[in-house]
Amino acid sequence: MIDARQGRRAGSGWVWHVAARYIFRKHKKSPSIVLSVLGIATGVLALIVIISVMNGFQLGFIESILEISSYHVRVESVPAGMSGEALEALLAVPGVAAAVPFREFQGIVRGRVWGQQAALVRGVPEGAPGMDPGMMARLEFEQGSFDLGEGRSALLGSGLATRLGARVGDEITIFSIPSIFAAGGAGPADGGDGTGSLAFTVAGVFRTGFFEYDMGWAFVRIDDAEFFSDGDPVIGVKIADRFRDRQALELARRGLAGVPGLEGAELSSWRDYNRAFFGALRTEKLFMFILVGLIFIVVALNIYQAQRRMLLERREEIGLLRAVGGGERAVRMIFVLDGAIVGFAGAALGLVPGLLVATNISAFFSGLEAAVNAAIDALNAVASLFGGGAIGDFAVFSPAVFYLTEIPSRVIPGEVALIFGFGFLSSLAAAFFASRRVSRILPAEVLRYE
Q1: Contact 210/221 with Cβ under 8 angstroms?
Q2: Is the pLDDT of residue 157 over 90?
Q3: Average pLDDT, the chain
Q4: Sequence-distant (≥ 6) Cβ neighbours of residue 34 within 8 angstroms
Q5: Which of 36-40, 249-253, 350-354, 427-431 reaches the highest mean pLDDT?
Q6: What distances in angstroms separate CA 207 from CA 36, 109, 272, one per listed residue?
Q7: C-alpha dihedral over 144, 98, 130, 57, to 10 degrees?
Q8: What is the pLDDT of residues 120-136, one digit of tens each?
Q9: Alpha helices, DSSP H only, in 208-274?
Q10: Of 21, 11, 56, residue with least CA distance to 285
Q11: Kind plus residue range of the DSSP H or E element containing 190
């Protein structure tokens, strides 16, 4: 008989051999093993696709907010005559990628023919596209371009332009909301004679993919915005890594403190003025992760029961292995390895198609819609023979309902690795807890009747 110490010195190759024999030969026809692998594969595939699409939506919103609206860091209380000095000091800070002064106000935008809409109007420098490439990357111009250089020009969001019935070259009127309330109403535009309104020519229509901006945003020159807003301008700062905003805040404060007249500048981070919104997105993603992750719990319970049944069916073999010198830990390792094989096979089987679908989500849904519509066309053809009504085309995300031109998806490698790990570890943990019954199997009692 080989004792445990000699067995360990002899190596653990026999453990792998027995584990592989159980999983590939003894149970190659067992439906529980196949179902366990498919269950883990389904969970991994579903989580990768769902989380990737959710990342696409959420990061699209977040990047639109940070790149167009709030910036990574805001600098306020900068005297109007010192914007140039403030820009130089901020651009000299390590990690700062862009800095743009702007003014903004709430106004009413009125079309020349019909329609009016409340909007946030932001005044930016004429050279804003070169000063802030990140903002330009988020603006897709359906008409015209980002050109505020000639006359009194304005850029409208696509939804706002549709509401006003305005196109490039049309004239619109912008009213300042505070002046409307102060005057008790406003009449037609008259070039700024005290009614708080100015006439602008539409130079471009842009789309961001974020409904709020497309429906209620407009850009004008910062000099024109000064007519409506007499406060100090705000400087928006972009940093190379937005998650290093705390460090950037400290460095920016030091840089501005060294410039006379800028000691009183107030700085804030994107975390401060978007805390509630970003917190809601984080909570939504966490709960979605947990809900879809319940698949792994169900599969783990299935693996746990399958391993317990295997232990009962192999009591004689386990007793024999223990009798010839196999230690309790080594015999338990056989069943843990079986669980590891099932977990790894399932996770790998779900990983590949999950990544393929997540990285080609638009093509996947297009193919799905084409297949469903082909079936609908066939049903319509059959129904027409009997005088039945036709069924309309199917769309997963219809543009009439959803504000989408395409389905966004963003695969984050760290999250994919975490999902793969969950699938693998759920099976491994189930097998580990099921294998504890090995300690209750005594070789003498098992072999007494053999």
Answers
A1: no
A2: yes
A3: 80
A4: none
A5: 350-354
A6: 46, 17, 27
A7: -30
A8: 999 999 889 899 998 99
A9: 211-216, 222-225, 245-257, 270-273
A10: 56
A11: none
